[in-house]
Amino acid sequence: MSKIIKNLKQFSTSNDRFEGAHLLCPGCAHSIIVRELLNCTDDNLVIANATGCLEVCTAVYPHTSWDASWIHIGFENAATAASGAEAMYKTLKRKGRLKEPDKPVKFIAFGGDGATYDIGFQFLSGAVERGHDFTYVCLDNEVYANTGGQRSSSTPRGASTTTTPAGRVSYGKKRYKKDMVAIMAAHGAPYVAQVAPNKWKDMVKKYQKALSTEGPVYINAMSACTTEWKFPADQTIDVSDLGTDSLVFPLYEIENGHKLTITYRPRNIVPVRDYLGVQGRFKHLFKKENQHIIDEMQKAVNEKWELLQRREEAGI
Amino acid sequence: MAEKLKLQEVEVWDGNMAFAQAMRQAQIDVVAAYPITPSTPTVHGYAKFLADGYIDGEFVLVESEHAAMSGCVGAAAAGGRVATATSSQGFALMIEVLYQASGMRLPIVLGLVNRALASPLNVNGDHSDMYLGRDAGWIMIDAFNAQESYDLMLMGFKIAEDLNVRLPVMVNQDGFITSHTAQNVKPLQDEVAYKFIGDYKEVNPLLDFGKPVTYGAQTEEDWHFEFKARQHKALMDSKDTIENVFKEFESLTKRKYNLVESYLMEDAQVAIVALGSTVESAVQAAKNLRESEGIKAGVVATRAIRPFPLKEVARALKDVKAIATLDRSAPGGTLGMIYNEISGAMYQSDNRPIINNYIYGLGGRDMTQKDIKEIFRDIKRNADSGKLVTPLQQFSGLRGPKLSFFN
User: Fold this and answer.
1) Crossing angle for the helix pair A30-39 and A200-212, nearest 10 degrees?
2) Per the CB < 8 Å rule, is A72 touching B60?
3) How many angstroms separate the CA atoms of B141 and B368, rounded?
4) What is the DSSP string of A199-219?
5) CA nearest B219 in A: which residue?
6) Is A15 near chain B, with CB under 8 Å?
7) CA-based nearest residue to A113, from A5, A202, A24, A222
8) How far is A45 from chain B (nearest CA, A)?
9) For A8-314, CATH number?
10) In a designed cystine with A135, which of A120, A217, A265, B317 is the match (CB 3.0 to 4.6 A)?
């Protein structure tokens, strides 16, 4: 059952099933993304968590930040852990062995972009193909933040990471970010969306839609990483605003694999350069010899935005 | 509600069908599985039972063995009966999650149909996969034929789910020789089999929302050691439950199982220690040699591989003068596992027999009666000489020049 959240005050005083006591960095967007999801429903929750920042910062024995059923197995298999638990739920419901047979249960999986785009890609693909009734949320900070800032296949072109460092002859990562939203939509998942914590109303709306959707749902959540993106800890929302308003992170959803809807249109689209300029990971791009990379990135963002708009218009 | 299946007093099943029938009778709540030779027919059999309405559980057909065990862990933590089957490379892919299953104390049952590990690729039976899993914190039991595969699979659930145990159980059988050879199996009827195992007892299930639990927490140097020590203790203590379940099964079926099985050991002077279908072959060879050559030969096998029945092994071998330990897995630069473990057990006993090691049957190479008799004659020479006159480690059944090590 969805909870009605009308304003920020009501949201901020909402009951927490994800407790504030955790070890995430000050300014980490993960906790905002997770907390909103857990607080937007009154249903019972089973949460599967991939190894990563969220996991290591919220379940260090003998403590736990989770006032909900929670399981972490490994780096790659959060989607499969959720699959197994969901399958057990279906069996026990059929066999009349549930303690609260009438109360809805939602299955959620959290993974970072390393767990989602890379090592758990096959597991997520399998779980979505099998059609389990669960919501997978990728906390996309575009880097292996927990292991010291290595590149993932979600890392954007031009970013300096510890394994693709900018140097005398390198401008950082050469390849573009993998389009995970499109890949999940291509699986025919009934609902796929991209969210950002600065647009919290849009995020809650999508979460509630996700949880009420029967079948597999994929949510790609932009999660600004103060440590690896290299910006001050009190500017998470400002950086996120530049992410959505530059359209580097466009907010949209895709239903049944094809029906695309743009859910946020910035009143003033800001240049990609502005988004890059506030992050240390892109600092080297502003050197004279690397400026063309910024131009290329702007071009890629423009093209993607054009594609999204055309797809929305065409309704296919 | 699942339909019952009426079984004959004696069925003709191969080892895979024996596994599948026992899994059906256990009324498993969730099976997550992925196909691999030679365990595939276990999963096929289970799928057919499901399709025909003889099973009322969920069957999650995952995209890899790693996912199979991951799905099993998720399902078992949710709170119900869970099992799967695999072999070889698939088992190797599962390894990471095997440790997580045992660390979380989840009573998952795994039917492991033993097969060689690549490279070179090989689909036939040896014990490389079994050996690979031996430190994973699972209870490991070994079936030597199809009847035992059926019996031990049933008992596996009862052992794993016992409230004093709560550890995953691996039931091993030999690929092809056991898994694909039709044999007579005396099954229990469905009600009797299910009653023997009993209803699943939940412990800290994810689906108990009145009491939310955190599975898979992190521990570092402050707690990890204590967790692992407790896990080891649980595994060591499971011996009592295993023996109790064996006894209960015996009173139900008159089929007796022991932590360590002994054959022709009453007056044996030399003994082979082996695993899998080789145990029956060795018993046959021992019988023949007793008649034809008067060698007082016997056979010992560890029914329970983990927990390792150290004292029971020493007791079973307390009067022999020489032992041949037969390992069906490439030893990777040392002596075979059975050699090391039997030697360790005998070092703690008053009897200090001469022990040597044979590597045999890799990749499904036949272990012939001739080979086994040769081994018995070897160790008879060791016994008669009162010292090791054979190589410490040699390869049996290998083509080309004889190969031996630690000479």
Assistant:
1) 50
2) no
3) 24
4) SHHHHHHHHHHHHHSSS-EEE
5) A61
6) no
7) A222
8) 8
9) 3.40.50.970
10) A217
Give chain B's domains with CATH numbers.
11-201+217-253 (3.40.50.970), 260-405 (3.40.50.920)
Measured from the Cβ of residue B294, the count of other Cβ atoms closer than 10 Å reads 9
Task: Tell me the whole-structure pTM to 2 decimals.
Answer: 0.97
Tokens of B171: 């039931």
**Nearest CA among A166, A17, A96, A259 for reference residue B212:** A17
Which residues 72-111 of A have a C-beta within 8 angstroms of B?
72-74, 76-77, 80-85, 87-92, 94-95, 97-100, 103, 105
List chain A pLDDT tens, one digit each, 316 residues. 667 767 777 767 776 899 888 999 999 999 999 999 999 999 999 999 999 999 999 999 999 999 999 999 999 999 999 999 999 999 999 999 999 999 999 999 999 999 999 999 999 999 999 999 999 999 999 999 999 999 999 999 999 999 999 999 999 999 999 999 999 999 999 999 999 999 999 999 999 999 999 999 999 999 999 999 999 999 999 999 999 999 999 999 999 999 999 999 999 999 999 999 999 999 999 999 999 999 999 999 999 999 999 999 998 7
Residue numbers of A between 31 and 60 with CB closer than 8 Å to B: 44, 46, 48-49, 55-56, 59-60
* Amino acid identity, position A12: S
Distance CA B91, CA A219 (A): 32
Residue in chain B lying closest to A44 (CA): B209
Q: Specify the 3-state DSSP secondary structure of A259.
A: strand
Q: Cβ–Cβ contacts within 10 Å for residue B311, how many?
A: 14
Mutate to test the interface with A, among B55, B65, B201, B215 (most CBs of A within 10 A): B215
Helices (H), B32-122: 40-51, 65-78, 88-103
Question: Which residue, A188, A184, A55, A165, is CA-closest to A116?
Answer: A184
| Residues contacting A289, CB < 8 A, separation 6+ | none
Buried-state track A272-287, b at ≥16 Cβ within 10 A, e below 16: bbebbebbebbebbee
Task: Kindly determine whether residue B209 and residue A70, on different chains, have CB atoms separated by under 8 Å.
Answer: no
B65 and chain A in contact, CB less than 8 A: no
DSSP assignment of B364-375 equals G----HHHHHHH
Q: Hey, what are A169's tokens?
A: 């002859």
C-alpha closest to that of A228 among A48, A66, A52:
A52
Q: Chain-centre distance of CA A265, in angstroms?
A: 19
Q: How far is A145 from chain B (nearest CA, A)?
A: 17
* B183-185 and B11-13 beta bridge pairing: antiparallel
